[in-house]
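During the second year of the project, the team shifted from modelling isolated chains to modelling whole assemblies. The rationale, set out in the original proposal, was that interfaces cannot be judged from single-chain predictions alone. As a representative example for this report, we include one of the complexes processed in the last quarter. Its constituent sequences, exactly as entered into the pipeline, are reproduced here:
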Amino acid sequence: MEEEVEEVEMESVGEDTEASGSIPFQLQFDKPVPFQVKMAEWNPEKDLLAIVTDESKVLLHRFNWQRLWTIIPGKSITSLCWSPDGKLIALGTEDGSIFLHDVENGKMLRSMRTHDAAVICLNWEEDALKAVDRDRHFVYEDRTTRFFPPPPQVPRIPGLSDGDLEETTQQLSSVSCQRFNILCSGDRDGCICFSIFGIFPIGKINIHNILLPNHLGTNYQYQLKNASISKVALSRDLCRLEVLCFGELIELGTSPKNNDTLVGFHCLNLDTSIFLNRKNELHQVAQQASNIEDVVEVVRASISVMSKQWTDAMSLFKSKFQAIASLIAEHGLDSNSQDEFLSLLLGVRTSPALQQFLLNTLGEAGVKRLSKTVDNTGKEVRTVLNEHLQPALEIIGFRVGELRGLSRWRARFKSVGLDEKLMDNVTETSGMLLIQAERFSRVLTIVLFLFQNFFNWVLKCTKILLQEPTDQVQQANSELVVVFLKFLLQSDPVEQLLEAKYSVEVDMETMKRIEQMVAFGGYRDVTFLERTLASECNKLEQCLKEAFLMPFTTVSETVACKGLAPLFPVASPTPSTSLPIPMSIHYYKDEVDRASEIDKASPNLTDYTCFKVLDGSLGLKNCIGIVRGFMGAGLGSSVNAEESCLDALLVHLPDQYDCVDLSLYKENQIVLLLNDLESNSETAERSLMVMMQASDLPFVSVSLSMSDNIFLLHQLEDSMMNLDLDIGKFRAIPHHVTVPLAVSASRGLACVFSSQRHTLVYILDEDEDEVSEME
Amino acid sequence: MSPQVPQSGIILGRYEAALLCLGTLHSRFGHSKTALDALTEAVCFSQRNNDDACLTYTLAAICNLFFETGTSRHSIGIIESPHSLGTSTGMGTPSSTQQLLLVLLKRSLKRADSLKLTSLSAHNRLTLAKFDLKHVKRPLVSFGPKASTNLKTCPIDVCRELRLSGRVLTDFGSDNISLLNDSGTFSTSWLKNLATVNNKNMWSIHRNDYDVFNWYLQPSPIPASVLQLAGSSYLLRSTSWEHYGSAPLVRVNALVYATCFADVASSSESSLAYVKLIQHLAVFKGHSEAFSALKLAEEKSSSTSKFQIRLLRLQMLHDRALHRGHLKLAQKLCDDLGDLASSGNGVDMDLKTEASLRQARTLLSSNQFGQAEAVASNLFCSCYKYNMQVENATVLLLLAEIHKKSGNVMLGLPYALASLSFCKAFNLDLLEACATLTIAEIWLALGPGHAKRASYLVHKSLPMILGHGGLELCARANFALAKCYLSDPTFSIVTDPSCVLDPLSQAAEELQILEYHEMVAEAFYLIAMVYNHLGMVDEREEAAASFKNHLLSLENANQAEDEELLFY
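Output from the structure prediction step:
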């Protein structure tokens, strides 16, 4: 098998060199792949190809086909995309989660469950345009790195060596230096989510709920029903979002008469201009907020680690000392362990039960061991407190203060939903948490000290009972032993503070002091010391959630639909929707003078939407549709509905070919992958890759203000163009090909997968190749 | 703040311990010269007797002494004597006083760490943090072109030191000093507590006395000195954020101290926490709230802390007098402050600086620019002489303000820029924003052609000022913002009036809280003009009436002032 493959490769390369003058798209290599490929995407920055197999394994290959890593996320992957800087891979899953993976090692850095249904499409776009207006664009500095050492990591539970955790937080906090970018995801139920840097959710819209404008000039408005998103594409200036979705269009205010005609694929133009207009503000908020969330995670983990360690040690202590109770019962005494110890302390008597306990059950070694365990646990808890919890709280306090400061700039930050009151609330809670931590530290120190004192005393008593010299034992303080017997033998104040379910009894004096502090600008909520450390932490999380929900809802509300173009109807909805139809959206810098029509803030971008028309729709077969300037049409002429029009074209492919996949490529090119249906296993050319210049195609201007035929393709039927393979460059491929076609614009590469499990990489761009050779 | 005088560990000779105590006492009472003599001798004897613990404590005491007397130039002569006693780096190159201090501190810290003197090491870390807060650390050895010199203070170091010093509680108990030192104070407090519990619950006879103990009421077995050290780190944190500019953290850290360490705090430290809280109130909530809090604090404070509270009172009264336009009163308060600065205990440089600053400000408010400039320049010279760089930034900014107000706007610019670079070097973010604002105001004063640049600068400083600046600063920034729009020739008030009116009314609101009549009147004047332009007559009249009110109260200031003077 291996040999055969080698042969094929040799052959194809040989053929390539022979006819390199005439055949475009030089074959780079042809390699076998041992699995069926579902999705593939090129890294935007490097020569890396991410592949998702049918079994939802994710693989990363180099350009030379060396495999870097393989991961098995354990869930069905439904979509894939790269972060704009090429450092993260976003994976959308069947159950609505989005995973972010590190390109270096494939480790999962973050998982978010933002959707309720399968995430069908992902689009991660960076703000590529430089801010023109200097006045609006001031450089924002995150001061935290100047004033604080790097934030603490999630503490490790001793005994569990987990190396992953350390890198995780480091990776995510490196987000700070990123440029502003937005990850946009669409799901099967028609929801679209936005998140800044892919980690801070900033908006969610349900396309069933948005009102769609019509271009009829009448008062009718449309809504979509049973919609699912097929493709989302943010423009490079982030201010527009094109959505391709399948669904049923219903007219509001009218009874559905012949709704069967309105089921089909639609193209929506959503206005996301807030991402452009409030870019700096959103950037700052997201940066601070996502960092705060990371550190809050550290706080929460610290508390649970401390709690775990402490309760382990205490249960050991309790289980050892439980024995006294049973011994007391055995000796038929009517007392408790506390009293027995007290009488020992006061020198009244040593009851036989206690004596038996100290000498036989526990023994000298037992006391020492127990003392050591408690001491070590105390040290570990202290370490977590000192190195994780307190620094984390300090950083939270600082970052929250910065956010609160921003929230006071109402003119700028009100519109992104940063609310002053809510932020004040968070500030107060984070301050209270700092006090809580200090109190905990104090209680812990005292308790540990009391324990040590108690163990010293017990050890001494044991020695005396054994009639051994006691000069090696540290002196114990009797008062502290009383305090210990009274308060720590039965209850556990440290554990109380670490659990959310308890409430703390605050003495009158402290209460009075706190009430007095209000006059000095202290916390108005004077009962905060009654909460425990853990419940205060919960409260902080709650406050943060509330505060960050505001930007989320505010931004979500600003996203509105600016344009609607029903593309083509689909007669039977059920089977076709499950199969993804090939479609591609790309924004190009505009070379024509269309700029005048488009919103001034984002000049020179024209969108191209290319899709395969489902066979049977409108009686058409083997057609692809191309729409140009739809996003501009909606925005530019929204005042005058009559004028809203766009360029579109219907291309009919030769009947012997079946379009497998298509993709838009740089400089207004369309790459089509066609299977030759008439070929058989003997023919050398079994499929074709075609590249044509989209801007040269005879587009037809179509008005969106249609009356009878609401679907766009209705108007194009007459002007349908038959694809002549001579108009573009094409190359035959000696395999039957399958989806996907992965095209890399930055590298000028195309990756094709054959149904016989082969991968073929072609160089699309000869010019680029020459350049690189020259270098 | 003086380190604990060790009672254990010195077994070899008591003489050096006695010398150390003597030196500490001398420095406490302000005789730095004699103190240094004693301490130098203590160093000698400790070294001779190999008494490491005492040596470490002595070094720390010397550092303390220098910190208190200031690291001024004339102290070089004194500091060289201990320096030559074996602590010399042996380079033969004269280093600055600060570097010598740093060397001493680090040495003491290292020794304290190796000897496990946890309290001393925490104390040394605090001192180190205090040092790092205000000084640029330069490498001791810098040869050749490759030696990079980072001419900035390092806040991360301050943060690290403070965190480490706060860990004194962690190691508590491990050094065993606390146990050995038990002099019965705990037992006494325990018995006292027992007695109070008994008294309180006379009525509940059926209950066992023993049951009414509250865990949190138990006297803490941790020695107060250890807790004080842990608490000091919070106070110092609060101070450091005053420098770096984070208003919420200033308040929170002072609150942590006042809540958690009130029971153990020394009176001067606890009143320092209250001073910080009240200052915070004065800056953010206005005079009335601050004064009522001050009254509470005065009731609470003991005689030893009276000085701090009295100082605070003078400062607050002075601020209020300036806002209200009571210039005579302000002048009088200034003089009082000056008196406080050079009391019997010797000259307090920080206080003296502040008194001169306030003096210059008062003169500035009464439009005596020449005199104000003279005072400020003098102050700059003395700050420069005593190496008080951080204060320099403030003084330079004041000089810029004086020139800006006197009409020689262009003259103010270099001062403001110099202040800006000082602020950058010392990470004084809030002051930096303030300097940026001043520069913007200077550009504005130069004419409408510079409105764009001014607007850019104001916008740049706004996040910092609105987030961490007090009422007055916020009002000033809002004011400048509105003025930027108004003087921009391309801006049309009709299309977007809110972008001028919002900041103006915001500023008016903030200034009203401060009773800053002069500026409130100006704000209302501008508001009225804008409404007039927009043709909104009712609103215009309302603003005009407010303008008139505030102008009247400014004119009445003299009368009210006389009353105040009497009252004062």
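Chain A has a mean pLDDT of 80. The first helix of chain A runs from residue 2 to 18.
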